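Subject: Protein entry, chain in single-letter code together with its fold tokens

Category: Structural biology, sequence-to-fold work with a learned token vocabulary.

Notation: Tokens come from a learned vocabulary of local backbone shapes, not from coordinates.

Start of record: The labelled sequence and token lines come straight after this line.
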Amino acid sequence: MTAAVAANRNTFRDAIMVFKPRIAVFIMLSATGGMAVAQGSMPEFWRLAVLALAVFLAAGSAGAFNQWVERDLDARMSRTAKRPFVTGQFTAGPLWLTAIVGLLAVSVLMAGLATNWWAALYTFLGAFTYGVIYTMWLKRRSWTNIIIGGLAGSFAVLAGAAAINPVIGTEALIVTVVLFLWTPPHFWSLAMVASDDYAKAGVPMLPVVAGDKLCAQVILAHTLGLSILSIIPYFYGMGGIYLAGAALGGGFFSWTSIKLVRQPTRKNALKNFFASLLQLCLLLAAAMADRAIGVIG
């Protein structure tokens, strides 16, 4: 491999990472979870696939906008100091902003044409919440930033549910609230690990303004609430697979959160962060498996 080819590959990889694809995947999975718990008959598979892709692209545009706006903050944090807009590899000018906004517009149009305009609206609101409300308005001003920012994942659930039925049912609303409660403990756990970075950058994340001990207690309260709430859709018609996924994921996340309260160390915070990812994956996978079996049956 020549040096030029290697450089091109690295540039392409870095360009992709600007859009935070890992976060976008979880937002997309949240939308598929909304499809799984919504009441109504499934439309053609291609329509749901297009909506999932649209949510992924919209989340990616919000992630890129986040990096475009926060390059000054990223430069002050060791965790993000090598991002392309910080190093100067990419110039954070109007060309990038046009591409980001254009991607969001395309994704919203895709969602509306493939399913309906309610799903398209929720797709847009998820990206707007993360890109504008969280990134531009709240992150530098208030420790509540990620609480409101958590609506980004909630809107993804609503987008998926609206693709099945624009009238959002009880199960979908409950999972929407679960995602709203999930995002803060997920992110605060990571913020505990990187609290020195956030303090240096002047970002008022909860562990910075309240300390690790109180932050761990708030994380546990959120975790217990979402774990209990995630079981309730079983009593509204979801099956045993869903119940098992919700109970196992919620139980494990609660256990690691209890350990975090007992010992609010960065090691336990990182374990809790990964436990939150496992909980969400189990919940969404179980919801999709439950729906798939029901459709096949």
